[in-house]
Specification:
Length: about 450
């Protein structure tokens, strides 16, 4: 057997990486995993409002993102009552979490236990290196790969980039796709039901001001079954480029004048840069057909919103992978998004509307508006993708890899045998043409 010690951010730290660990861990046997996370008093990251600490399963003692060491990791295992003979330490890596690359590599070299690192933000379409990785990523991987037993990546593109740049370490590189939520209580909602539930929340439970609520009641945008809503939900981060949502709506309204088309952005800023960005977005709204509702949606309500939109528009500046897509596909939400990096690979596999070119996206959405039956097929394919890469399935693959690592410490694991089916599936999409609309 193997006991996994996930290391990185974890709830109540407000972070997508911490959420990822939570979603994987909750699907595992509770006796076979623990979490080693940062000291909540010194880590310097935002906390959830409830600020709840996991008791028993998590140890919050790593000093902070800029001050960590192998002894700190071992102290956490000891504090959780763990044994070293079956321990696998599994790091969730992102440069904003572990802020010193050299210290991270040094920590790995001094931690004499089986080690796995999941890389959340590697790229494969950069022009900086022949492999498609960025130069700093090549340098960092060169420091890390000699001192780990395995790394995992989310996409076939990253897998090829890493093994292409470091063929001597090909046996250490595994692909475990990002998990997808499959919430049974939301996936079965019709779009009309989802709109009603979202409307009830926004009008009666959200933190919207009274003027905004009254405008919602007056415009009736969520009760008008004939309008087509293109939406986005989540934090108001500038990198998501939500301003394009309003430009897209304006263009589509000219192309399909017979249909009322609305743009609805729901989300709240969480720092000064996002508050500044929110001010910029407000200038593009008119509370008639372009809307911004500044409210933080709970996790379940985020998925309800994604289901309530006739289409979720996704055009971020960078697309290494996306938690937002993990929520949307799990409820069968319709998505149109940028064909780029790992998220583009996900969109292709889920057969969503995707392209590198804005005009192709516009053509695909126009086709969807004029032919609603396309949306039925898109929803079916999104749900099929979600079932294949559910958190439950991906958690089992985590457990299998940890077990194989413990059992084969004297010889390499063969990545193709471990993740052969997923590699084969993604290969079917490699090099295919871009989709403007589902076929």
């Amino acid at each position: 057997m193997a006991s996994i010690y996930f290391s990185g951010t974890y709830r109540p730290i407000l972070c997508g990486i911490g959420d990822y660990t939570h979603f994987i861990a909750r699907e595992l046997d509770s006796s076979r995993w623990k979490v080693l996370s940062f000291d909540l008093n010194t880590c310097g990251l935002q906390m959830t409002q409830k600020n709840e600490v996991s008791k028993g399963q998590a140890w919050y003692g790593i000093p902070g993102p800029a001050d960590f060491s192998a002894p700190a990791i071992l102290s956490g295992i000891s504090a959780l009552g763990g044994r070293l003979d079956d321990a696998v330490v599994w790091f969730q890596h992102e440069h904003g979490i572990w802020r010193d690359d050299r210290k991270f590599a040094l920590m790995l070299s001094r931690l004499h236990l089986p080690k796995i690192v999941t890389f959340h933000t590697l790229h494969f379409q950069s022009g900086e290196t022949p492999s498609g990785l960025r130069q700093n990523q090549v340098e960092f991987l060169g420091m890390v790969l000699p001192h780990v037993d395995a790394i995992t990546v989310f996409s076939q593109g990253v897998h090829q980039a890493v093994t292409g740049a470091f063929p001597q370490y090909w046996d250490k590189v595994f692909m475990l796709r990002h998990g997808v939520h499959v919430p049974s209580n939301i996936g079965g909602l019709s779009r009309i039901e989802a709109r009603k539930r979202l409307s009830d929340f926004l009008l009666h439970e959200s933190d919207l001001d009274e003027n905004t609520r009254e405008n919602l009641r007056h415009t009736g945008i969520l009760s008008d079954q004939d309008c087509f809503i293109i939406g986005q939900a989540g934090f108001l981060c500038p990198s998501k480029q939500s301003e394009f949502l309003y430009q897209l709506r304006d263009t589509l309204q000219q192309l399909v004048p017979q249909k009322r088309i609305l743009a609805l952005r729901i989300g709240a800023p969480r720092d000064s840069s996002q508050r500044t960005y929110a001010q910029q977005l407000r200038l593009q709204t008119n509370n008639r057909d372009n809307f911004l509702l500044e409210s933080c949606l709970p996790e379940d309500m985020l998925r309800v919103a994604q289901k309530a939109f006739d289409l979720n528009f996704y055009w971020p500046r960078e697309c290494s992978q996306s938690g937002i897509l993990a929520h949307a596909l799990g409820v069968g939400a319709l998505v149109a998004g940028r064909e780029m990096e790992g998220s583009g690979e996900t969109l292709r596999m889920a057969e969503a509307i995707t392209s590198k070119e804005p005009q192709s996206i516009i053509d695909g959405i126009r086709n969807l508006i004029l032919n609603p039956e396309i949306g039925i097929r898109m929803e079916e394919r999104a749900l099929a993708y979600a079932q294949e890469f559910s958190w439950k399935n991906q958690a089992k693959k985590h457990s299998d890899l940890a077990k194989k690592l413990i059992a084969t410490m004297d010889k390499p694991i063969i990545p193709e045998k471990f993740e052969k089916a997923s590699l084969r599936r993604s290969a079917e999409y490699a090099g295919t043409g871009l989709m403007s609309s589902p076929s």
